Amino acid sequence: VKLRTLQKNSEGQSSEFEGTSTHVDLPVVEKGEIFSQ
């Protein structure tokens, strides 16, 4: 589920925000870690 969530967010956000993908990846990773814990 964690990998699917990261891939889904990366694909959707990359398409909409290519420039801010770096900024968006930070909170996405944090959320993924929280869910895994």
UniProtKB/TrEMBL annotation:
Region described as Disordered: 1-37
Biased composition (Polar residues): 1-23
Biased composition (Basic and acidic residues): 28-37
Name recorded for this polypeptide: Uncharacterized protein
Organism: marine metagenome
